[in-house]
Structures are given as C-alpha cells and as structure tokens.
Amino acid sequence: MSGIGVIGLDGPAPDPARHGEKAALLAAGAAAGLPVPPALALPPGFTGDIAPLLSRLEAATGARLGGAEAPLLLSVRPSPIGTAGAQAPAVLDLGLTQAAFPALAARLGERTARDVHRRLLHSYGTGVLELEGDDFEYALHDALRLAGRESETDLDAGQLAALSKTYLGLIADEAEEPFPDDAMAQVAGAVAALPRIWNSRRARLRRQALGGDPDAPLALIIQVMALGLGPRGGAGFADLRDEATGRRALSGRYLPDAQGDDALMGLRTPMVLTTAERDAMGLSGAALEDREPDAIAALRAAADVLENAIGDAVSLEFTIEDGAPKILEVKRARRSARAAIRIAVDLAEAGAITRHAALMRVDPGHLEEQLHPAIDPDAPRKVVGQGLPASPGAVSGPLVFTPDAAEVAEARGVQTILALIETSPEDIRGMHAAGGVLTVRGGMTSHAAVVARGLGKPCIVGARDLSLDRADGTLRTADGRNLQQGDIVTVDGTTGQVLAGEVAMIQPETSGAFATLMGWADEVRRLGVRANADTGEDAATARGFGACGIGLCR
C-alpha cells in the first residue's frame, strides 16, 4: 500500500501534492462522516499490482470484483495535481461481466442491469479505447427512433440488450482491442488508459489553451460505484452557496435515473434541486426536493460539515441511490469578489478558519472591486470592444466625445461615458463630469488610467478594436457598428469589456461582511492610511472609509 491514499477506509489519507486535491477533499468529506463511497487514490506513474489493493474495497463492501453472487462495480476517476484545466473523463461501471450479470439483474431488475451494461460499454469505449463518443450517441438515437421512444429511460430490457450488442459491434469494428469480459482487466485497462490519454498531445494542448499546466501530473481514484439508476436514483451537482453573493443557498441540477455527468449532457432536461430555486426561476416542474426531501436535507447538512472540515465553501457532484445521496466529488466553490468576502467572514465567524486566515484569503482586488458598481453576473453581455481594465467598476450611460459634452450632461444630471482617443491634463474636467472613461489608445500607466483610478471612475484604456472619428462623432466597433454620441454603452473597468446598451448592475456594499473584514484588518494593521483627495467631498468619502488623513491634494 506504499504511496496509496485511502478514502473512507483505515489508512493514510490522500496528500493533495501526491494524489491531487480532488482525492484529498473527497477524503476529508469521508473522514467527516459524509456518505462517500470507499475509494483508493493512486499516485502518478503507479505501476504496481492493483489486485491486492482492490481487496480492500471488496472487504469494505462485502462484494467481489467479477463475483457471480455479489459483484462489485467500480469507477476510475482522474485527480489532477495542481492547476490542470481540462480533465480526463471518468470510466464508470467497471466490473460487470457476463458471469456477474445475473446477480446484478437479481438485485436491480433486468432492465436496470441492461442499462448498466450498455453504459459500461459506452464509458469504456470512449474513456479507455478512445473511440468517438458521437458513434455511441448516434447508435442510441437510432435505437430510440427505431423503438419510437423519446429517452433512453423509455427503452425496455430487450431494447437495451440490442443497444449493447450494437455498442459491442462498434468496439469490434473500430477499436484496436476487444472489450474485455473480465472484471480485473476492465479496471486495469482504465487505470492504464487515463494517464495515457491525459499525457497525449491533444490533451496537453487543450489544458494549455484553458490556462492549465500542460505538464500537470495525474493521480487516479478507484471508487466503489454509486449506480444512480432506477426509480429512486439519479445524478447531479450542487452549489452550496450563491456564486454572486456568497450567501448560503442550495442550488444545482439533478437528472433522475442517471449517472456521472448526465445532468450536463442535454439528453434529457434536468430538474432543479429545491422548491425555492424552482419558484425563483418561475418553473412549473417538480424539484428534487418534492421527490426526495430527505436527500435535500442531507445535502444541506453536508454544507456545514464540509465547510468546517475543509475550511472553505464547496460544491458537490452527487449520486442518489435508493433515495440516499452519495458524494462523489467535492470542489472548492466558484465565487465572485463579493462572495469571496462573505465566505471568508462566514467561515471565520463559524470557527472553520481564523480571522487571520480570512484576511489573507481575500485578494485586495476583491475589496477594491466591491467599492464600485459591478455588472450583475446573470446579465447578458453584448461585447463590442475589449481594452485594458484600467480602473475597476462598471457604469452605463450615453456616449460623449468631448469634455464639454460630459460637463453639459452632468449639469442636466446625466451620467455619461467619455470616449477619447487618449486623454491629456486638459481633459480632467470632463473626466470629473463623466461616469466612466474609455480611450482607444493608452496603457495601464497612461494619463487616463492614473487619473480615473484616483477619481474612482470605471475606465478602459487601449481599446484598439474600436475606432473613434471625432469629426463624424462616431465610434466604430470591430463588428461594424457605428455608435453615435448619445448611444448607450457600458464600460466594465474590471474586465476591460465595452458592452452595447445598459446592463443590470450590483451596487457597492461596504456594510455587512465587508465592514466586518475591514474591522478585523484595523485590529492587526501597523500602517496608517491616508487618502488622495482633491475636494471636500473626496475627503469626506475617504473619512467614511477609515482614512486617517490626506496624503495628496492636487
């Protein structure tokens, strides 16, 4: 067992540096008492005999791999080490053979057992033998059309058996090796294939394109299958906090009678998890909470357990088996700047992390971003230009092309977007009057960028895909639009995007979690903070944010 991490079993827990964060977070959930199927974590480059390792899973479940009485089914899942980007697919339902089929059919029913078999062939064919997934999808759609059915859940045992026969024909015709009707060979094939596919040129280029490390090592997780099939089974994913605000709220998608990523595949329409989410979205169908309220209660309880155990907000991939959830993956939750602050404060107040850890976890840019209006993450974006994000925040308003026009509009109470080729000191009055600034030329240290940051105005500089003709009063976009003075645009100084039209905003919030975090910072800081302020209004604003004096007055 040297170098092997165990999940839900006695033995050494996976090390994220050796077995990947996926394995380590899953083990933390299991150690905290959550329903995680037992698993083993193999380090990169593992070449040992897997048979003795799998005996641990057999002992834990009372089932035997390839057994004719109580067959054990397994999955092999990727667990990248470091920042990897795109991941290899999991290979599911390993261990089902002709000898093991009768026992599985006796336990699940013949129709469900046939479904497991055709899923194994699909997963092994694409994930191990590297056949095209479209070939299997076309075969499924042909079977549905021939049977006059809408979904694979409508196919009976005989039709699923015929589909499996078609899949076996595809493998025989297209693969370099046959599908193995041997349980150990299936698992060994998956363990060998995932690293090979991971290190292929195509996979490395894809990781690099997505910003990941093309050389990231790959560890593996061999896990007891949670089938998710049948009338009280299914698969889905759950976010335990709102990505935009950070507040505790369960949301996600769930697909009945499903496995793995089925809820994301679009073959059938998934349901939302909670009745609150359904009502907020104006949907009329059932939510998972209507069907399995105990499962939803278990997922909500898992949020508290995981946040305390891991010290971070997480999201889950889960399978429901006979009405009970099984947790298959734990990931650190995505979050906006606003959410990052609230999550850090909530975790510190709950005792999951220290106040010092909360302070160090929040990026300074998150604090600055929250001082300005931001575009609602759910709002549609019609991007018409891209520049450098010179000063954070977002603002919508009519275009103007001169400082005079910005001042006139301000006198009428209208907030404008001042668009110039570049700014000079003579333009400062227009920058004061405008709500946001956009320049075609310039960099992050240009006059426009420096002044806009000092004024706290959203600003984009160097938007070179835009062309400004001041004589005609036209701003031409790369897609051929001619924007005139008075046309409404939005500048997002946080991302550098120029958007057509007015976009829904989230207003600054400096109370609540933000104020709490800044109070903790005041308790430990050793530096005084003085502000740049040119007017009495600027000085009052700085005082409101806790500045102890004025450092620069132009």
Topology:
Blueprint: E1 5-7, H1 16-19, H2 21-31, E2 39-42, H3 51-61, E3 64-65, E4 71-72, E5 74-80, E6 91-94, H4 101-108, H5 110-127, H6 133-147, H7 157-174, H8 183-198, H9 201-209, E7 218-224, E8 234-241, E9 248-256, H10 262-265, E10 271-272, H11 275-281, H12 288-291, H13 293-310, E11 314-321, E12 324-332, H14 337-349, H15 355-361, H16 364-370, E13 374-375, E14 383-386, E15 388-391, E16 394-400, H17 403-411, E17 417-420, H18 428-433, E18 436-439, H19 447-455, E19 459-461, E20 467-469, E21 474-476, E22 482-484, E23 488-492, E24 497-500, E25 505-506, H20 512-524, E26 530-532, H21 536-544, E27 549-552
Parallel strand pairs: 3-4, 16-17, 17-18, 18-19, 26-27
Antiparallel strand pairs: 1-2, 2-7, 5-6, 5-7, 8-9, 8-11, 9-10, 11-12, 13-25, 14-24, 15-19, 16-23, 20-21, 21-22, 23-24
Helix pairs in contact: 4-5, 5-7, 6-7, 14-15, 14-16, 14-20
In short:
The chain is 39% helix and 22% strand. The protein is α+β, with helices and mostly antiparallel strands.
- Beta-strand residue fraction: 15-25%
* Structural classification: alpha+beta
- Model regions low in confidence, pLDDT < 50 over at least 5 residues: none
Number of helices: 21
Roughly how many Å is the radius of gyration? 28 Å
Terminal CA distance: 69 Å
Report the count of strand segments: 27
What is the quaternary state of this protein?
single chain
Tell me, what's the shape? elongated
Please give the order of strands in the largest beta sheet: 14-24-23-16-17-18-19-15
The biggest beta sheet, please? 8 strands, mixed
Overall helicity: 25-40%
Q: Averaging pLDDT over every residue, what do you get? A: 91
